[in-house]
Every structure is written in structure tokens, then in C-alpha cells.
Fold this sequence. Notes:
Distance between the termini: 48 Å
Number of strands: 0
Structural class: mainly alpha
Largest sheet: none
Shape: elongated
CATH class of the domain at 53-167: Mainly Alpha
Amino acid sequence: MKTLKFVSTGLVTFAIVGLMAFAQQEKPQHEKAAHEKVAHEKAPHKKMDGREMTAALQACAKACSDCQRACDLCATHCANMLHEGKKEHLKTLATCRDCATMCSAAAEIVARNGPFSALIAEACARACGHCAEACEAFPDDEHMKFCAEECRKCEKACNDLVKQMSRK
């Protein structure tokens, strides 16, 4: 039974790899030349090589992951502050929770260089900017200060990625 499962898994993997290779066959030369001309006209900037893009994607994904954890921690802190009667933390509780969710999704999509990487990075940058602003309203609170710092780092990494992806 294990042998059958192993063989069927191997066949499925082989089929998927074959389909991917077939889908990525090189375009006819005239289509390729036309595409390169349009791409060059739209992007006069220096093209990024694969290593630069991979580094930018991974830097953004890491910043998003770090920010997600900081926002989750800060949301827990805000919930504790609410429990103590500090109602001014209600907004930051919601902001941090939503930002953490956005960052988590962005980290996953960007790490795999998904087709919506630039879109989620742009949205994540905006969410992080709003979250940082809300947390910066509490400059004497170390949890809030840390969250704001991580949000600003993530915001920058996401904006940098969006700029780089527009040049590729």
C-alpha cells in the first residue's frame, strides 16, 4: 500500500512538473520581441536581475512576518489595557489585529512571489502606516513603541518592493 501511495505521488508530481514546463514554453520570436519592446518603453529604469528581486521579496516577506508578530503582541497588550479600563486602547487593538492579518497574508504571498505580490505589498504598506500612526499616539508605552517601529520597517520594505517590482 505504501509503495502504491509513493508511486501515485511520484506520478502526480511528474504530471505537475510536466504541465508547468509545457505552460512555460518559450514564446515565438516575434511575440517575444514585441513584448520586450513594450516592456522597455514602459520601464526605462535599470532591469533587476533575479537575485536582486529574490532579495527584495525575501526582505519584504521577513519584514511583514516580523511586523505581524509585533502587531499580534501589541493587540494582546491593548486587550490587557482595555481590561484594566483604558478605553483609549480600543482603536489600537483593532488596528493591530487587522495589521497583523494583513502582514501575515503579505508575508505568504510575497515569499512565494505570487502574482499579487505588488498589490498586497502596497496594501500592507498602507495598513502598516495607519497602525504605526495609531501606536505612535502612545510614545511612553514600550509595547506600542515597538509595534510602531516594526510597522514603519514593514511599510518601508513593502514600498521598496513595490518600487522595485514596477521596474522589473
